[in-house]
Every structure is written in C-alpha cells, then in structure tokens.
Amino acid sequence: MKEIILVKNGELVLKGLNRSAFEDVLIKNMKRHLAETGEFKFTKSQSTIMVEPLSEDVDLDDAAECLLKVFGIAALSRAAVCEKNMKSIINTVTEYLGEELLSVKTFKVEAKRSDKKFPLKSPEICRETGGIILKNFNHLSVDVHNPQLTVTIEIRDGYAFVRGNNLKGAGGMPTGTSGRAAVLISGGIDSPVAAYMMAKRGIELISVHFASPPYTSELAEMKVMDLLKKVAAYCGAIVTFVVPFTEIQEAIRDCCPEEYSTLVMRRIMMKISDIIAKSQNCQALITGESVGQVASQTIYALGCTDCASDLPIFRPCIGMDKDEIVAVSRKIDTFETSIRPYEDCCTVFTPKHPKTKPKLEDVLEAESKIENLDNLIKKAAENAKRVFVK
Ligand code: ATP
Ligand code: MG
To answer: pTM score > 0.90 for this model?
Structure first.
C-alpha cells in the first residue's frame, strides 16, 4: 500500500499573493529536515503539501518525526493512497486504519471531494463508509462531536486518500520568511526558549555567546552548544559567535562602581552583539529577559540596556512567569541541559547590591570609567570565534 504524508501549512493560508513564495521556503526547509531520511517529491495543492517518498525503503515514521519540528506546519497526517472507487476506499480504510479502529471506542467519517465528478457526494461517502466500519468493528459507535478517531477520505483528481487523526505540527512561520536576528544565548533556561520562540515566527537565527575563561569553563561553552543544537533541530544550523569577554569583565570589575557593574556589562553585551548582528545582516537582537526576573531586568534596567543598540530588541519571554518559560523549555527539550550547573559570565563578579532603579545618566557615568571602551568592544567583536552549530 502506498503511503504519503500530507502537510497542512497553517498561517501560510493567510498570506494571499505571497503564499506561493512562503510555501517554496517551507518546502526547502522540509527537504533540509528530511535530507537524511530519503528522497521525496513535494506537490502543492490548496492548503496542503503532499510529501511522497520516492523509494520503498523510506521510513515514514522517521520522516513524520522530522517534519513535526518544521516551523510553518500546522498539522500533518499520514495517508494511504488508493483507487478512486468505494470498494478500494473501504478496503483501504479497513486495512490501513484497522489497528487504530480496534484501539478506540468512537469515530466519525469525514469526506472531502475536490473531484466533483465522483459519483457519490460527501455525505454519501461518509454514510456508506461509516456503515461498513460499524458492521466490521461492532465495538465502535459514532460520535460526530468528539470522536477518538476521525477517518478522513479525500477524493482528489487521480486517486483517493484515506487517513486517520492529524498530528499537531510545530506551527509558526517557515524559518527564513521573517528576516534574521542574533540571539544572545547564555547557558540558562530563558534564552534558548527566546531563540525558539522567535525562530518559530520565521526568523533565521545567528547567536552570540559571551565567555569569560578562566572564570567560565569549557563545559559551560559546551552546554551552550548543546542548547543551540536543540534549537537548530527546529530552525536549521545556527552560526554562533563566542565572544572573548574576560578582559572587559575585569575592566568593569576594576573601574566601575559595583552597584552599576551588571548593567554596564549588559549594555556592553548589547553593543558587541549589535556589531556582530549588523555584520551578519541581522535586523534585530533577541534576549531571554523577563520583566522583574532579576535586578538587571526591572523596567528601569531594561530601559538602560535597550538604548545600547539601535536595533530592535525582541524579548519574547518578557511577560512570562518562570514556570511558563520552563514549560516551553521542557517541550523543546532544553530544560535538562539548561540546569547543568556551570557558571555563566553573568554570574561571575555579581554585585551584592545592584541598582534596581538605575538612572541612565548614572549608568553612562559608570561606563565612562572604563578607558578605551570602544576599542575593547571592537576588539572583542572582531576576535569572536565563529562556530557552525547544527
Ligand atoms: P537565561 O535567561 O538564558 O535563563 P539567565 O537567566 O542566567 O539565563 P540572565 O542573567 O537572566 O540569564 O540574562 C538575561 C539574558 O541576557 C539572557 O536571557 C540572554 O539573552 C543574555 N545573556 C546572559 N548571559 C549571556 C551570555 N553569557 N552570553 C550571551 N547572552 C547572555
Ligand atoms: Mg533569565
């Protein structure tokens, strides 16, 4: 029996004249995700894309698993292809969905008839198929409102499809359809979630990580790479810049009043990220900040970091509670990696009493105590190590 995957492309259907271009990007992304699974043919048709394996030995379980991580897919389902007559359709329902029908108690049949010449109308297809299912599987009853299994029959031009329940896709927009941004990635819980949330909206990511050896370890850097790999499983490879930050952090420690040191550091992170982001044609920065989470994320502190770059700064976690952020990190499987206990540069030299209501002029005054800061910033950006994470 020939089996294919049908992909429903959620929000893309709203895109009017651009739709075809969006679908092309989606197909390109699907090909990339399926590269190691086998060869497939992709056919666009209304709001679905048909993914057809080109050889017998392709593992469709693997293929479906890969496609569940592709942004821009609202739902997908596997379907059996059969001849366009009721006998073949009913045989296929029994054979292809038999096990599923045995494992549930309620079902309904839906029919979609894009070939209007098919002799039976949709309600007739449903009635006939439903009747035979009830006869063959006499433990079942019909529930049209909340069935455990929906059997869908689609009558297309050359053939019919039979399928069971949809699987929920990753949602969002295809990666690469919403521009490019640089995510500031720490080893914490929030920034990988922020990266995932913006990538889900179709943004292509690069990332910037600040490392301060010997205060931060190689294990901390590996942890960040592991986190990025988890995000890259959704959005594709992430070019990453590891910025040498020790000299700057020591300068902050030695020159700036302690209560402003974290904010000065965060502004410098933004400035370096701004240079790297612009050199990589990014249109925005992304952080995992959330209002009130720590002293450097009060509304006053965020105001002081915001103006360190003239790029828009996206903070998708800004209104989320920690437990909500954790729920996303568990969903995307970054949580267990994030809680590995290595120091981040943000947690070395932390002041005892950071300002929670800083004034920008005082932060700028503190920042001005560092000699040659512009050069240090330029040098750090230039000396960043470039890593390709996938
Ligand atoms: P996370 O926010 O990722 O859980 P965290 O809470 O330890 O880690 P914060 O101190 O809250 O980090 O930092 C706020 C944001 O600043 C992070 O979400 C991240 O975007 C950025 N950031 C912090 N440390 C680094 C770093 N070492 N390299 C790059 N960006 C960082
Ligand atoms: Mg945080």
So the answer is: yes
